[in-house]
Design brief:
Blueprint: H1 2-17, H2 24-34, H3 36-41, E1 42-48, E2 51-56, H4 60-63, H5 66-83, E3 89-94, E4 108-109, E5 113-114, H6 133-139, E6 160-167, H7 179-184, E7 190-194, E8 209-215, H8 225-228, E9 234-242, E10 250-251, E11 265-271, E12 278-281
Parallel strand pairs: 3-4, 6-7, 6-8, 8-9, 9-11
Antiparallel strand pairs: 1-2, 1-3, 5-10, 11-12
Length: 283
C-alpha cells in the first residue's frame, strides 16, 4: 500500500518539476506575500540538517480556526523528522480546502485537488487531529490521533441498516447548493444529521451503521473519507460535479489508495450554476 502511495506522489512531483526553474521559489514568495488569501493560509518551512525551521506560520487574525490545521501539519512534519532523515528543502503548504488554479505551476503543496489537475498533495492534519477544527477550537480539547479511535463495531449483524452521515451545514463554495441539506430531507433509510455543538457524535460511533455516506462540504472532497474505511461498513462516496467546469473528481492524498467499485461505491450528483441538481449513478 505504501508503495502505491509513494509512486503516485512521485508522479505528481515529476509532473510539476518539469515546470519549476530557479525562479519558481522566488515567484512563490512573491505570490504568497502579495495575495491576501494565499498569505493567510500558507505555511513556509525549511528542513535543514533534519531540523524544522518555520519561516511563516498561520496567524489567527488572518487564518481564523485554520490556525489549528496549520499547527497539526507542522506537528505531523516534526513527527516525521523524529523518525526519518529528510533532505534539506524549502516547502510551501497551502492549508485551505480549495485548489490553487492560478498558482498551479508554483511549488506549493495543497491538501486537495481535482483529479485531472496538476499539483503536489500533502498529508493533512487529521492524521493526528481527527475532529473538525471548528469544534476543537471551541472546546480546546486535546488532539486525537487517527490510531487512537477505539471501540469500533466490527459486527455487521449489530449495525443499523441506515445510510448515515453527520456533518456541518455547509454550501458548496460560492453556490447555494448543499448536498447535505438535500439528502437530510430524505426519509429512511437515510439518516443525515446536520450537526452543531449539541449533537456531536464521536467518530467510532459511525461504525454502528451499515452504510456510511461521504458528502462534500465547501468543496467536493472531505477529510472524513479515509476514516470511513476503518468502520467495517460499506462506504458510499457521493461526488458533487458542477457541469459548468472541467474538474474531475476531487481528491486528497489518501484517495490514491482506494479504488472505486472495489473499496467503495460511488454516486455522482451533477449540477450546474443554472440548473437544479440531478442524480446519475456511475456505471
Amino acid at each position: 500500500m505504501a508503495e502505491i502511495l509513494f509512486s503516485k506522489i512521485k508522479k505528481d512531483i515529476l509532473a510539476i518539476n518539469k515546470k519549476i526553474n530557479k525562479y519558481s521559489y522566488v515567484m512563490a514568495d512573491i505570490a504568497v506575500n502579495s495575495n491576501y488569501k494565499l498569505n493567510a493560509m500558507t505555511l513556509k518551512i525549511e528542513i535543514k540538517n533534519n531540523k524544522l525551521i518555520i519561516h511563516k506560520k498561520l496567524e489567527k487574525s488572518k487564518a481564523g480556526h485554520f490556525v489549528r490545521r496549520g499547527e497539526g501539519i507542522l506537528k505531523l512534519i516534526q513527527l516525521t523528522l523524529d523518525k526519518y532523515k529528510l533532505k534539506d528543502k524549502i516547502i510551501y503548504i497551502y492549508v485551505g480546502d480549495e485548489y490553487l488554479y492560478k498558482y498551479k505551476n508554483l511549488p506549493i503543496f495543497t491538501i486537495a485537488k481535482p483529479g485531472n489537475k496538476e499539483g503536489i498533495l500533502f498529508p493533512d492534519q487529521t492524521f493526528i487531529d481527527i475532529e473538525p477544527e471548528v469544534k476543537t477550537n471551541k472546546t480546546g480539547e486535546k488532539a486525537t490521533y487517527i490510531n487512537e479511535i477505539q471501540n469500533i463495531n466490527i459486527d455487521i449483524k449489530t449495525k443499523k441498516a441506515e445510510l448515515f452521515f453527520i456533518g456541518q451545514n455547509i454550501n458548496l463554495y460560492k453556490t447555494d447548493f448543499n448536498i447535505r441539506q438535500l439528502l437530510a430531507k430524505e426519509s429512511a433509510p437515510f439518516n443525515i444529521i446536520i450537526n452543531n455543538d449539541s449533537n456531536f457524535i464521536p467518530m467510532n460511533e459511525f461504525s454502528n451503521y451499515k452504510y456510511l455516506l461521504n458528502l462534500s462540504g465547501a468543496f467536493p472532497w472531505s477529510f472524513r473519507f479515509k476514516f470511513l474505511f476503518m468502520m467495517y461498513s460499506l462506504v458510499i462516496n457521493v461526488q458533487t460535479i458542477n457541469t459548468d467546469y472541467t474538474d474531475k473528481n476531487w481528491m486528497n492524498i489518501m484517495d490514491y489508495l482506494f479504488e472505486k467499485d472495489k473499496d467503495y461505491k460511488e454516486i455522482c450528483y451533477y449540477y450546474s450554476n443554472k440548473d437544479p441538481p440531478k442524480e446519475k449513478a456511475n456505471k
